[in-house]
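ok posting inputs for the arginine job
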Amino acid sequence: MAKKSVRKTEQASWGGRFSESPSELMLSFGESVSFDSALAQFDIQGSKAHAQMLCKCSIISSAECSQILKGLDKISKAIDEGKFKWDVSLEDVHMNIEQALTKIAPAAAKLHTARSRNDQVATDMRLFFKYACSEIIVKLRDLLAALVDLADANKDILIPGYTHLQRAQPVSVAHHILAWAEMFHRDFERIAFARESANVSPLGSGAIAGTTLPTDREYEACLLGFIDESGRPRVTRNSMDAVADRDVFLEFASACAVMGVHFSRVAEDVILWNSAEFGYIVLPDAFTTGSSLMPQKKNPDSFELLRGKSARLIANMNCLFTLVKGLPLTYNRDLQEDKPPVFDSFRQVMICLDVLREALKGASFRRDRCAAAVSDPLLLATDLADYFVSRGVPFRQAHHMVGALVKLSEDSGTPINELDDSCVMKVCPKAGKDWREVFDLKRTMKMREKTGMPGSAQISKRIKNWRKVLDC
Ligand code: ARG
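and the output
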């Protein structure tokens, strides 16, 4: 049964119309300070800008303003030093800070003028997103630089590329690693987009319909850095949308989920390459673990966890979409649940970026195993079809001819490149004496020098370009 609060808790911010305090059960159910205290510094930043705006608009005096600013600085310091006492009965980060401020600065009673927790929390979160995206961008850049180094260091190693997890065509290790770089670069762009979306100030929208007081939204937007590239303020255009909108949450969580899918796909490549069956890559001891039972085991746990974390990142995204989809305008308390998934995605993406970068930095390729795998002549079956095409055979026929040769090779147990000339001429009368040259790996890579292909000149060009873009 719901216990009533025994204390006569004065709900200083909204208690006026109530004769009873909320029950203990309601307090513990409704509090968010256990997770939104992470927003404290953004909340203080927002409050400082708001106080300065109120002062500029002569709603509070300069003495009151400086009292508020000093008080907020004190609170900020106390929070940083872990000395601030968070009180669950004050619900959230906003009321905790406001109450603490009231105790040291009487002018704090005026701070919430022309502001609601609805535009306040929207502002805090936009400040958080700008910060979080910038942090992720730094780590994505570091990961990209590590990938480029790894590709560069292994440029001359060829491996089979796969489709359907069946050997398809030869590629360089560098080409494969640079494919990962393209994936993470798109993440970079998605996160940068989310940061841009966040860069609009909802402050001043009030609870839903702004305020009757003479405020200056543009001024406080500028103070908080919600500006465009020419320094002009960026403010939301509809007060109802401003407090209801959670699109940036969805964009951020989606960008993190896509990144999670990339972590997972890269991890899967590495896990396969690391298996005894492939044996292409050796992972550093520091990012692998042993088995408690089987002494010989060295498991790629770091990569398995990277693969596993993607589930969590996708779940966080799903949680937010589900949370928001049926809500009527504008603010509903459901929205308090918007923060844990976003904070979790941020924390997980940050650690995943570190782990992937460091684990790959310590990885090395086994030249012998790669060379053995890539020596399979069937990897060049398509090159043989291209060769027939160059001798005037329509591609569909060339494809069939090579198919017939593959079958012949399989049936006779003779590698395709060791079949008799007569055999090949019978299948393709247009074939020349030089047909066997097709099976030279150097030749095939040399012929793949168009944009985006794995030829070594292309790879060097891409590496050079990445180094310029990333300044690494
Ligand atoms: N803790 C609340 C949240 O995160 C702050 C906004 C509360 N607004 C309200 N109208 N009760 O959503």
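notes: Residues 117-153 form the longest helix (37 residues). Confidence is low (pLDDT under 50) at residues 1-9.
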